[in-house]
């Protein structure tokens, strides 16, 4: 399991209706993408839900590296690069995934929290805590799903969760979900990934 995200930070006066129209037009193209667990098309708008910026920031959880590579190198990602410039693509190794109690519901909001791991911590303990946090988030009222992943080059954890309502039981950056492609969500491995 692999997590991936890129962020397009847009001008403060940017008309986010452009992003909404783009997702409405092309979001379905990944609804059956081989190797994709899910893609959440995410938008946060300046002044809403505590956001200081306008930002389009899709989040992916991949079942296979081949599916991720086909997306990045096979041409699909080129359209975004042509329209907005080529963004830096962050990648994390999967630590844990859980369906939430509202897994069949429409995801309306997402929360992403990134945290650096300080020097001197016991890695096994930090990872066990990340798995526990994933379970806690998935068990909260209104949770659609929760995941945790790590970037070992930066020693950064990312916690990601999807919610059916705008009062998630999670801390972090809050995004609106414009579309959710879930071709392989049922095949994502549950629980701890090692």
Please give a structural write-up.
It is a single chain. With 194 residues, the chain is of the alpha+beta class. The chain has one domain (2-188): Alpha-Beta Plaits (2-Layer Sandwich). The chain has four helices and eleven strands; from the N terminus they run E-E-H-E-E-E-H-H-E-E-H-E-E-E-E. The chain has an eight-stranded antiparallel β-barrel. Strand 8 and strand 9 form a beta hairpin. The longest helix is centred in the last third of the chain and has 17 residues, at 123-139. The chain is globular and about 45 Å long.
Taking strands numbered 1, 2, ... along the chain, how are they ordered across the largest sheet? 1-5-3-10-7-9-8-6
The major β-sheet equals:
8 strands, antiparallel, barrel
Indicate the structural class: alpha+beta
The ordered H/E elements are EEHEEEHHEEHEEEE
* Name given to the CATH architecture: 2-Layer Sandwich
Radius of gyration: 16 Å
The coarse silhouette is globular
- The CATH topology turns out to be Alpha-Beta Plaits
Integer average pLDDT: 97
Low-confidence stretches: none
Strand content: 35-45%
* Cα end-to-end separation: 11 Å
CATH class category name: Alpha Beta
Please give the share of residues in helix.
10-25%
- Strand segment tally: 11
Q: What's the number of domains?
A: 1
If helices are DSSP runs of H or I spanning 4 or more residues, what is the number of helices?
A: 4
